[in-house]
UniProtKB/TrEMBL annotation:
Pfam families: p450. The keyword Amino-acid biosynthesis does not apply. Keywords: Heme, Iron, Metal-binding, Monooxygenase, Oxidoreductase. This is Cytochrome P450. The keyword tRNA-binding does not apply. Coiled coil: none annotated. InterPro entries: Cyt_P450, Cyt_P450_CS, Cyt_P450_E_grp-I, Cyt_P450_sf, Cytochrome_P450_Monoox. Gene3D superfamilies: Cytochrome P450. It comes from the Bacteria. It comes from Corallococcus caeni. Belongs to the cytochrome P450 family.
């Protein structure tokens, strides 16, 4: 058995002091990719965070995230408290408390609840479609990443609160904007995320804390207003307020606040990035774009998508899924070994960080033919069934901690493309491949510049 001769799988050469730290700062995803190309399916690194194993085979990913899930823990404090921003929301909480919360929050995202959400999504997306009207007439240049961030915030507001809280609520807007810039701004990188270095600088920390306070007062006011209403409603906030555990206990205001923040913070950036990548892949694949337009014309006949019609947009949805394969915003999922495990022939020592990278799995040759090729057909019903290894595709993670917003995200982006593409054409300002960065999300590094045009215009 190899582990007996050599306890560590192969990996790149390391600097005696810095390990692979310099490459990690420059481009963490490239470091992992090269490691995989040169050393195979299990690679050892010395990252800033400590000894790390990169797991590249879908079956090994399945072992870490699903089968042996008890042997691995999430990063972050064992208390399950994510600090002043995340509190004890789903993202940070652990153990029995997390399980209780997951059961309370999950019903708001069950598949049968998605259909009725379409009307609210369309309301949110229409605001972008209308804002784009004059811009399209003048052929204006926009940054699609900024546009999609705004669209997603607006639609999340509709789904959670049944209104455009972002536009209507200044403290909430200020809070979200600052937190977004802080967490996903241009300086965001693996290192700053993990070490929180920037947040330690006093001025920055003060601004961040003030933004959290503004956000909290806005959220508590929205919660109080709803609790006093005759009916809590059936949007996501209403579902959270009405949820009861088996003992009949509901959530405190603070817990509802923490879950709302987890949904906003967790949901908004990755979804905006994914929607941006969809514009990118469509622009670079005119045949696919043409097929989407044809499907929209046949199914929607010029009408906004509805609960019934959005289900029929199989190809458009396949475009979203294939885009998430090639450009997964959550490019890595990290765990830490709690106890010893064996992966393949190797021993994983307690304390080792284990990185599973959807970006790498989504290209694994054992699971994908022509992995670099954009082929939405892979996700149409017939072909989907042929895929054997479940974790060869995991843009939303896997196992217990699978993203709670997975169905919602696919619905949101499909509805957004359907609504906007019926009215507007998007042309990228540059034809070449975009430069991507892998920080808290995998995204276009400098946004994605494009010009807008009315549908059917030649120029
Ligand atoms: C393209 C969009 C999205 C991507 C790529 C994504 C990705 C992920 C991934 C990979 C995880 C698991 C992390 C881990 O295992 O360590 C996760 C968890 C989570 N996501 Fe998403 N997500 C997206 C959209 C959303 C949306 C729209 C929401 C909410 C409205 C959301 C809420 C959450 C929450 C609350 C968790 C924590 C679940 C738990 O631990 O129980 N996400 N997401």
């Amino acid at each position: 058995m190899q582990a007996l001769q050599n306890p560590l799988p192969p990996g790149p050469k390391q600097h005696w002091l810095l390990g692979t730290g310099i490459q990690q700062v420059k481009n963490p995803l490239r470091l992992l990719l090269r490691g995989h190309q040169r050393h195979g399916d299990l690679v050892h690194f010395n990252l800033f965070e400590g000894p790390t194993l990169l797991v590249c085979h879908p079956e090994h990913a399945q072992q870490v995230l699903v089968e042996n899930v008890r042997k691995y823990r999430l990063l972050g404090p064992e208390s399950g408290n994510g600090g002043p921003l995340l509190g004890r929301g789903l993202f940070a909480s652990r153990g029995d408390f997390w399980m209780r919360q997951r059961r309370l929050v999950q019903p708001a995202f069950h598949r049968p609840r998605m259909g009725p959400m379409v009307a609210g999504l369309v309301r949110g997306i229409e605001r972008t479609a209308e804002r784009w009207e004059p811009l399209a007439r003048s052929g204006a240049r926009v940054d699609l990443l900024t546009e999609m961030r705004q669209l997603v915030i607006s639609t999340l507001g509709e789904s959670i609160f049944s209104r455009d809280v972002y536009a209507q609520n200044e403290p909430l807007r200020g809070g979200i904007d600052l937190i977004t810039r802080d967490m996903h701004g241009p300086r965001d990188s693996l290192v700053t995320t993990v070490l929180g270095l920037l947040r330690m600088l006093p001025g920055r920390r003060r601004r961040f804390m003030a933004a959290i306070q503004g956000l909290n007062s806005a959220l508590y006011a929205l919660i109080a207003e709803r609790r006093q209403a005759p009916d809590v409603g059936d949007d996501i906030l209403g579902m959270l307020l009405g949820a009861r555990d088996p003992q009949g206990e509901g959530m405190s205001d603070q817990q509802v606040r923490d879950e709302l923040v987890s949904l906003f913070v967790g949901g908004h950036e990755a979804t905006a990035v994914a929607a941006t990548w969809c514009w990118y892949t469509l622009a670079r694949n005119p045949e696919a774009q043409q097929r989407v337009r044809q499907e929209l014309a046949e199914v929607l006949r010029g009408q906004p998508p509805s609960e019934a019609t959005v289900q029929q947009l199989a190809y458009t949805r396949a475009v979203v899924e294939e885009t998430l394969r090639l450009h997964p915003p959550a490019w890595r999922v990290t765990r830490q070994a709690r106890e010893e495990d064996r992966i393949g022939d190797w021993t994983v020592a307690p304390g080792t960080l284990v990185v599973v990278s959807p970006y790498i799995l989504h290209r694994h040759p054992s699971a994908w033919e022509e992995p670099e090729r954009f082929m939405p057909e892979r996700f149409l019903a017939e072909q989907r069934e042929r895929r054997q290894q479940r974790l060869a595709y995991m843009p939303f993670g896997a196992g217990q901690r699978l993203c709670i917003g997975n169905h919602y995200t696919l619905l949101l982006i499909t509805t957004a493309l359907a609504t906007l593409m019926q009215r507007h054409q998007v042309r990228l300002s540059s034809e070449g491949p975009v430069r991507a960065m892998s920080g808290s999300t995998y995204r276009p590094r400098d946004g994605l510049m494009a010009t807008l045009h009315p549908v059917g215009s030649a120029s």
